[in-house]
Amino acid sequence: MRDDTHDDTERDQLWYVYAVTRARGADSVREELRGLDGAPVHALRDGALAAVASPVRAADFAEEPLRAHLEDLGWLERTARGHQRVVDGLLSTGCVLPMRLATVCRDPAGVRRLLTGNRAGLEAAIERLDGCAEWGVKMYAEPSCATPSDSAATNPPASGRDYLRRRWEDARAAEEAARNAAEAAREVHETLTAAAERARLHPPQDPRLSGEPGQNVLNSAYLVPREREREFSALAGRLAGRLTAHRLTLSGPWAPYSFGAAAAGATADAEGSTSGD
């Protein structure tokens, strides 16, 4: 990682902040780590903290173009992947607090003001999350092999009454499947929560975004101490093996995206927005 003495005075650039770490660990980041658009990352230090940032084009991240980009799912996905790539590359430095996507400042001095203005929350979050990693668990209800329309096509109802009876039976079956899925998700979440330091439930993921078959009935994150990761992973595996009509996936270890409260509520200067400083 390059030193924080780089002085960027070009007006067409802003500084994108990926994460906050302890300053003493920033020098151990790989030199080849690159940020958005292949830009080198920099450790911008202020006291015991360091913000990991890189220059980005104001044409993409100033307030007006950023507002337009946030409506572009392709741009958002590319930016999120680049953001995560940098955060993942920092994990060897110690505790990493990922910043909210598209957190930008005008210049390196603004990045340091972000650290100064949010010092108490950032230091408390690092202290609280140090030595832990985030693990994600998703559970899916497997799609049914046959749908009501399939049944009707192969065995048409003999009468209107028969049609209504089938509709009622289909509705009852769907309700029962939903109850079973909710109960299975609750049991998995409670079991994993008991094995973690903290847990957080996220809204179910849209299958059009995840690309996974079946309905997402559990989308959760768990903060797990590093020394208990193997035990936690084994527990998730046992739970997955007990499921019949549902499928469970485990991912990690990740930086504590779900538990850093967007880097302890840090805002760019006093403007309080992700595109600011």
UniProtKB/TrEMBL annotation:
| Family according to the record | Belongs to the gas vesicle GvpF/GvpL family.
- Main subcellular localisation: other
- Where is it localised? Gas vesicle
Q: What is this protein called?
A: GvpL/GvpF family gas vesicle protein
Give the keywords, sorted. Answer: Gas vesicle
PANTHER family reported in the protein's UniProt record: PROTEIN GVPL 2
Where in this chain does the entry annotate a coiled-coil region? none
Tell me the Pfam families matching this sequence.
Answer: GvpL_GvpF
